[in-house]
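Researcher: Next sequence.
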Amino acid sequence: MENVIIIVLIVVLALLALFIIPQWRLRRATRQVIRIFMELNATSVKNAKTIDELGLRPRGRLEGMLRTRDYKPHALSSLLTAEIVKTTEDGRLYLSEDRLIGSGLDRGAPYYR
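Model: Next structure:
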C-alpha cells in the first residue's frame, strides 16, 4: 500500500513538471513581455522598438545551457501570432492595446495602465 502512494505521488509530480509548471511560466512570461512593452511605451507604430531594445532576443546555445529556460521569446511569439504584438515594415515591434483589451489578457493585470 505504501508503494502505491509513492507511485501516485511520483506520477502527480511528473504531471506537474511536464504540463502545469511550463504553462504557468509561459503565462507569467506573457505578462512580463506585455509589461516590457508598456514600460518602454512601445504601444504605437511611432514608438515601436527593436527586439534588442526590448531585451527579448532569444539566448544563444551556450547561455541557454547555463541558465534556466527563458519563456519570454516563446511568449513574444505567441503574442505575435495572436496579433497582440505587431511588426512594423522595418521589423520593429509594438503592442496593440486594442488587441490586448480584446484578448482578455488585460483583466486584473497589474502591468496595464
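Model: The mean pLDDT is 86. The chain is about 60% helix and 5% strand.
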